[in-house]
From TrEMBL:
Protein name: Enolase-phosphatase E1
Gene assigned in the entry: LOC101861345
Region (Disordered): 266-313
Native source species: Aplysia californica (California sea hare)
Keyword Amino-acid biosynthesis in record: yes
Annotated InterPro entries: Enolase-ppase_E1 (IPR023943), HAD-like_sf (IPR036412), HAD-SF_hydro_IA (IPR006439), HAD_sf (IPR023214)
Pfam families: Hydrolase
Length: 313
């Protein structure tokens, strides 16, 4: 495999000319793909029993359990292999917790993305973020660049297959602080699939910009193609841990490894430091929480995850 042939910085400079809004993908773009696989999913497995026991009487938790029970009953009737039933009625709390936990782990083993599963996962992650046991992981350039772009009047949005609520939690409880205010809005797959152009047309209509004035940033070429088919601009983001891009994709799209490359201008290094804000840490190389390791930029892109769509929170 050849080293990625990125377009030059001069070309990248044109990426922001006339852009009024930027729409960001999350996994593989602002956040390592491994965050979901190595942090969020294991958190659910390791904490579900305790979470259910502690929050069993909570109305939202009960609603999520009921939904999982109804799904399991339906799937048992349909003879779905391995479906784990959840007792209702007069079953003890312990038995229900145990069955829900088994059901959730069985669904996760099969990499299922059912609405019922996502609902309970979402409640567990909310608890994890709010108790500060989990922080939304961001590549080191993300926070400072989002602040800078917002400050410059560019409207920022998210389009991810993670629910809008999950997106907000990640950015509100990020490793770089609360970034809630930089965003003008959030979109998830209730708007449509990320690989269909209609979704991007809808987003443009909701944002209220001409599609051509909106830039979509993602790691997945099929999503970039759909955005372009919807009339938007798009650039591919190459991050450590992402799947390799083909030469064709590298040729067809502008590709960036850091958001400051949107400017194609070295002077912006200083701007980024300036916009790192009061804590001033975001661009420091000694940042010990840093996930977006600059030293790894060469030869990265190995991805042992065969998941076609890594955006799966
Ligand atoms: Mg992605």
């Amino acid at each position: 495999m050849m080293a990625p042939q990125k377009r030059s910085a001069e070309e990248a400079e044109s990426l922001l000319v006339g852009v009024r809004s930027i729409v960001f993908d999350i996994e593989g773009t602002t956040t390592p793909i491994s965050f979901v696989k190595d942090t969020l999913f294991p958190y659910v497995r390791n904490n579900i029993d305790g979470f259910l026991t502690k929050n069993f009487e909570n109305a939202e938790v009960q609603k999520a359990i009921t939904a999982l029970r109804d799904l399991a009953t339906k799937e048992k009737e349909e003879k779905v292999e391995g479906a784990v039933e959840i007792p209702g009625g007069d079953a003890s709390k312990e038995d229900v917790v145990k069955a829900v936990s088994e059901n959730v782990k069985w669904q996760m083993d099969g990499d299922r993305k059912t609405t019922e599963l996502k609902a309970l996962q979402g409640l567990i992650w909310k608890d994890a973020y709010e108790s500060k046991e989990v922080k939304g992981e961001l590549f080191e350039d993300v926070g400072p660049m989002l602040k800078m772009l917002a400050e410059e009047g560019v409207q920022l949005y998210v389009f991810s297959s993670g629910s809008v609520e999950a997106q907000k939690l990640l950015f509100a409880n990020s490793s770089q602080g609360d970034l809630t205010d930089v965003f003008s809005g959030h979109f998830d797959t209730t708007t449509g699939s990320k690989t269909e152009s209609a979704s991007y047309k809808k987003i443009a209509a909701e944002i209220g910009n001409e599609p051509k004035d909106i830039l979509f940033l993602t790691d997945i070429p099929e999503e970039a193609e759909a955005a372009v088919a919807g009339g938007l601009r798009s650039a591919l983001v190459i991050r450590p841990g992402n799947a390799d891009l083909t030469d064709e994709h590298l040729q067809n799209f502008a590709c960036i490894e850091r958001f400051d490359e949107l400017y194609g201008d070295e002077d912006d290094e200083d701007d980024i430091k300036r916009f790192a804000g009061d804590n001033g840490e975001a661009d420091d190389d000694d940042d010990d929480e840093d996930e977006g390791d600059e030293d790894d930029e060469e030869g990265e892109g190995d991805n042992d995850d065969d998941d076609e769509n890594p955006d799966d929170i």
